[in-house]
Specification:
single chain, alpha+beta, seven-stranded antiparallel β-sheet, 17 helices, 26 strands, 19% strand, flat
Length: 818
């Protein structure tokens, strides 16, 4: 359609008053009577011309139908072949994707298993007893863990020089082992398969660094290692079956098989085997190269003179990669149903073409009868599809021109007081061979449109009769129709329609346009009411948003104020007794040491003591007291230092005395928050820290600590709702670049039940919570969002990790130069 936006005002003939048409002058009366006589005498011949035109168009449609059927018969075979190969490709791609997903399920199972084992070793390495490196104290702890965890058959404690002792009582040195070197470098790692030096059994070793206790943090003093067998990896590989003769294998970072059905190909660090990278089979060496490069794909290759599909994918927790080898026929055999269906379709193609010919001719006979009824439904549907006035008017005039084959149609507001017609939209057919006359001011200005007219009227011009002898303008005398559109609280509207020159307006067309005008009037009224409603809704939403922001701000201010008062009181009440105990401990240690030395001198001076003293010495176990008393005093000293550290963490967490931004260590804030939550975590939840090298960031430290507290508390609550042993919270930090800027990121993820997709869009709304009544206020995430986005110009996002659960990603911009 050629659609024209029109918003000009058109003046009527001043001689024509609203609601009446002035009588023609006497010298024109005779011409007008002559004009109407010509119209009435030629009406019948024009109707016959219109009927002939309709029959001619119907014959053209039949010829077009036959042409379409002929071309369809010639091209349908080619289309069928193309469709077959296209559908075959889609099905084959889907089958390959299923095979790849089966492999990924196996790699995910191994990754989850290794991740859990790493978390167990890392948690055990942080145990204060293990950090003493005293085998007499550590051995009972490790023996108990072996009994509890079941997965490990050996746990080893390694000193910084590489010497180790394990739970079997064996001693050796692992200074040259890569897993020991990485652990001493502060890395939690999983080794490639190797032969244990004490057990002589192929194993995988998970090693974690042992960090020194305060006051010497961030110093690795040893390593804790756990040995597990390859049985779990082998079991998963053996379970990856995709039909007969399929098998799975795994390669390490050098391309050496660590799991393979052929045991002669398997190797490890202490038992070298040929790498697949150097295989004489070029397809196998290429697949091995892709696996070493940690790629994921499924390919059709020829290995050992046999076509197979090879799906391969890397493991995330260790530098290995797994592959699933599937014979070609195992996958492509599932295409037999498509081949059978293609044969059946080809056999039914001929009868279907004959049926289509009969159906088309039958529907063509019924189409003319149903066309006019469908026309009105279509126009009404498009009118009601929108509540915007411009789209409603545009759709109406466009559909009228298209379905009634009009020369032109327009809609405008008629204002009787100003005697003006305001045209909003005009439309003419896009395939019109000759340009149609537009409703310009010189044309519409002389139209006689009575005010308050309720029925459609055929428009005429008084000046047409004068030029009838010289032009063909008389043929268009009755080709223009004005259909009134009555709306509430709106000016009088009109649909102006122009027919082709040799057609007359039939009664059915006038009734159809009248029905369209009624639908248009209803739609315009609804659009006006909808516009008023939207304005009110915007005002209400604006007021509601302001109210929510004010409520959130007041709650946050009150919460921070209460936190400051609590921290001040706790620090004051705890510091006094702690300082008293801490100040007296050095004297107590000195006095105890002097008394023990005095007892020792008495033993040397009087080896023979009275029986009463000897009996009392045995009763109180004097030798044990001499050995244990210094340890007790040391434990008391560590305890007082821990209490002082907790008080310091409370003060650092709140930072109420800092109202301006300052450079802060983000890791310190996280550690302080974890220390405050240690009572809720204890041994029930494992904390996995993946700290990256990040700079100090300019921020409001207390506000960021509040965000960490909210996110970690939510993660703990989520994990407490599930019944599983491996409850893990992972905290990751790092630096990312986005949109030309540098951001510090903090990711806090848990493996809990996760957040349903249906409520993800509401979690940042104030007072929205999924917790039971009395256990949540619904303000934690709303306040966190405001702190990060409004207070720091950052972002906070929620996602679902591959292993399940929930992950919150916080990004805070880093100042330039940092």
């Amino acid at each position: 359609m050629n659609l024209i936006r029109r918003e000009h005002l058109m003046m009527q003939n001043p001689a024509n008053q609203a609601g009446s048409v002035s009588a023609p002058p006497p010298h024109q009366a005779k011409k007008l009577r002559h004009f109407w006589d010509n119209i009435s005498s030629s009406a019948q011949s024009r109707w016959q011309q219109a009927h002939s035109l309709w029959q001619h168009r119907r014959q053209r449609r039949h010829l077009l139908t036959l042409l379409i059927l002929a071309t369809t018969a010639l091209t349908i075979s080619t289309t069928a072949c193309i469709s077959y190969f296209f559908v075959r490709g889609l099905i084959l791609d889907n089958l390959k994707e299923i095979a790849l997903l089966k492999l990924e399920k196996g790699t995910d199972e191994i990754d989850r298993w290794l991740s859990t084992r790493k978390a167990e070793i890392e948690t055990l390495a942080y145990d204060p007893t293990v950090s003493t490196l005293n085998w007499k104290l550590v051995e009972p702890r490790l023996q108990g863990e072996i009994y509890r965890l079941k997965e490990y058959f050996i746990l080893s404690l390694t000193q910084s020089d590489g010497s180790f002792i394990n739970t079997l009582g064996n001693r050796a040195n692992s200074k040259d082992r890569q897993h020991f070197k990485k652990a001493m470098a502060g890395q939690l790692n999983v080794s490639d398969p190797l032969i244990g030096r004490s057990t002589k059994v192929p194993t995988i070793i998970i090693s974690a660094p042992i960090w020194a206790l305060p006051p010497a943090p961030n110093k690795v003093i040893g390593a804790l290692s756990g040995s597990i067998k390859l049985d779990r990896v082998t079991s998963v590989a053996n379970s990856l079956q995709y039909g007969s003769d399929s098998y799975a294998f795994a390669l390490n970072s050098q391309g050496v098989p660590i799991v393979h059905p052929n045991n002669n190909l398997i190797g490890n660090i202490d038992w070298p085997a040929p790498s697949f990278l150097k295989s004489q089979d070029p397809a196998l060496s290429t697949i091995a190269r892709h696996m070493i490069d940690r790629q994921k794909n499924i390919e059709l290759v020829k290995i050992d003179n046999k076509w197979v599909y090879v799906a391969y994918a890397p493991l995330k927790e260790v530098n290995w990669s797994m592959a699933l080898v599937i014979p070609r026929e195992n996958i492509e055999s599932q295409l037999q149903a498509l081949n059978l269906l293609t044969s059946v379709v080809a056999g039914l193609l001929g009868p279907a073409m004959l049926g289509a010919i009969w159906l088309i001719y039958s529907s063509e006979n019924n189409r003319a009868q149903a066309e006019r009824e469908a026309m009105l439904n279509r126009i009404a549907g498009r009118i009601r599809a929108s509540l915007e006035l411009d789209k409603i008017v545009q759709s109406t005039v466009e559909e009228i021109v298209s379905l009634l084959h009009l020369e032109r149609a327009a809609f405008g507001w008629y204002k009787p007081k100003e005697q003006m017609l305001h045209i909003l939209w005009e439309c003419c057919p896009s395939d019109c061979s000759t340009p149609a006359k537009k409703f310009e001011s010189y044309f519409v200005g002389n139209l006689s449109i009575p005010s308050g007219q309720c029925e459609p009227i055929i428009l005429s011009r008084d000046t047409w009769a004068e030029g009838a002898a010289q032009t063909n303008e008389i043929k268009k005398a009755n080709s223009y129709l004005a259909v009134p559109v009555h709306t509430q609280n709106q000016p009088q509207g009109y649909l102006i329609c122009s027919h082709v020159s040799h057609w007359l307006w039939s009664r059915e067309e006038i009734q159809l346009l009248k029905a369209v005008a009624d639908q248009l009037a209803i739609a315009i009224t609804q659009a006006h009411l909808y516009s008023q409603t939207q304005d009110q809704v915007k005002l209400l939403n604006s007021a509601l948003n302001e109210l929510k922001k004010t409520q959130t701000h007041l709650v946050q201010s009150e919460k921070m104020s209460s936190l400051g008062q609590m921290v001040a009181g706790i620090a004051h009440e705890i510091n006094n007794p702690v300082n008293f105990i801490s100040a007296n401990l050095p004297h107590t240690s000195k006095y105890t040491k002097d008394l023990l030395e005095l007892v020792s001198l008495y033993k040397e001076a009087f080896p023979e003591v009275p029986q009463e003293i000897a009996d009392f010495t045995e009763e109180i176990e004097l030798e044990f007291i001499e050995e244990d008393l210094p340890h007790i005093l040391d434990s008391m000293k560590i305890g007082t230092e821990r209490i002082r550290s907790i008080v310091l963490s409370l003060r650092n967490f709140s930072r109420l005395d800092e109202s301006d931004k300052k450079q802060a260590d983000i890791h310190e804030g996280i550690e302080n928050t974890l220390l405050l939550l240690s009572n809720r975590i204890k041994n029930r939840i494992y904390i996995v820290k993946k700290y990256g090298k990040v700079p100090s960031v300019e921020c409001y430290p207390s506000q960021l600590n509040q965000v960490f507290m909210n996110l970690l508390s939510n993660a703990i609550d989520a994990l407490n709702e599930i019944d599983r042993l491996d409850k893990i919270i992972t905290i990751s930090t790092g630096v990312v670049r986005e949109h030309g800027g540098k951001f510090l990121k903090v990711a806090i993820a848990d493996n809990g039940p996760g957040i349903p997709d249906s409520v993800k869009d509401q979690i940042y709304n104030p007072f929205f919570t999924t917790k039971p009544v009395g256990k949540g206020t619904g303000l934690g995430l709303a306040i966190s969002y405001k702190i990060i986005v409004d207070g720091h110009g950052g972002s906070i996002e929620i996602s679902k990790p591959s292993g399940g659960g929930t992950e919150f990603l916080v990004k805070v911009p880093i100042s330039n130069g940092k």
